[in-house]
Each structure stands twice: as C-alpha cells, then as structure tokens.
Amino acid sequence: MTEQEQINYSRIAEVIQYIKANFKYQPTLNEMAEILNLSTFHFQRLFREWVGVSPKKYMQYISINHAKEMLKYKKTTLLDATYETGLSSSGRLHDLFINIEGMTPGEFKNGAKNITIKYSCTHCEEGCLIVASTKKGICHISFEVNKQIALHNLNLSFPNGIFEEIIDKNQEDALLVINHDYQKLNQVKILLSSTPSQVKIWESILKMPIRNMINYCDIGKKLNNPNLSMAVSSSISQRTVTLIPSIKIA
Question: Is residue 154 within 8 Å of residue 163, measured between CB atoms?
C-alpha cells in the first residue's frame, strides 16, 4: 500500500467511525464530507472506492442493523425503533427493510409469523445442504453437519414461520447454481442479509467463470478496487466452500 493509500484508508476509517457513532442523527453528506475537508463529490468518490457503496447506503445498513437489534432483542415497537434509529417516519423504516432485508419490519419483528417457508435438504458425505424460500425468493442457504442441525438453525432464523418440506422453483434454481448446471438456469432470486458491499462482492463472484483458483485481489480488480481485498476475504472466506464448492480462494 502506498503512502497516499494509507492516508486515504485512515481517512475513510475515521468517517466510518463517525457514521457509526452518529447515525441516529442521520448526518448529511455535507456533514460527513466536512470531517475530511473534502467536497461532497470527492468525498463520495473516495468513500465508494474504499467501501464499495455510497456513504448513504452504508449509513442505511448501519441504521437497519440497529433497528433489527431493537426489534428482535429489545422488543420495541416499530415507532420506537424508527425514533431510535433516527429516521423521519415509519415509512422510511419500512422501505429500508423491504430494500435490504426483503421483508417488512413487522414481519422481521414477528419472526416471519404466518409466512410460509418452504425448504429442502440435500444430503452428501460431508453433511446436509438446506435451501429455504418464501414467495419472494431464497431466504436461507446453509450447510450443516446433519439435517437436525440444519432445521434447528432455520427455525432460529425464522422462529414463527410456517415450514413446509417442499422444493420449489426458487430452490431448484439455487441448486442449479450449487451443482454448476448453469445451462438450465435462467435467474435465481435471493433475499440477501449481507451488507451492500458484501452483496457487491458476491455479484462479482457470480459473474466470474469457474476455475481452480481465484485471488482476493483479482476479485477486488473485478470491482475496480484492488483495495477491497481484505473486505473480500472477510466476506467470503467462511462461505465459499458452502455455496460454491468448486471455487477455491487464495
């Protein structure tokens, strides 16, 4: 890393800490840019280069994570969660959940109550692959030691869901990806719980041809940002073997 890159890294780390400490006040782009004494244009460009998403998207992720914690663990109302997150209206909270979580805040708070979740388990020598879906798309993919643990973890994710052991088109398409039968695949709909930057990394991986070895830096280059190699490592090192068995990460 060059001296200038180290400087930029430290500057972005500083503003990230600021966002985490002040997201409840929903600071504006100008306020964030002033911390680094940059114009809003140059600040956005620098932030996107290092983080992979805009400052606004990053703050939305921090905000919704706080709201999820309030709803799930502190059992607050939707109105209180909206207030504690610093959002101007419950409508904004609703939009954030739909866009990022693939469900409404009420559905999240209720543990997917009255939502039908279909699932299927595929067994192999190493264990059990479970794929679950709602009518909106894939909501859960996990590789576990056995079916019992797989179902236990699925229930923990959606404690009030209605579970049916039925394979549907969404699951079939996801299994085509996992089994590399790409010629039969049109499109896979997946509800992602990752951060926007992690989603961007996975989008890049899915566009790559399958080969024996992929370097983290190569993935960063695909994202037009070689500096993302550490973020790439963090995002996929524990998931790659589960979801894409033929890809090895260097």
Answer: yes
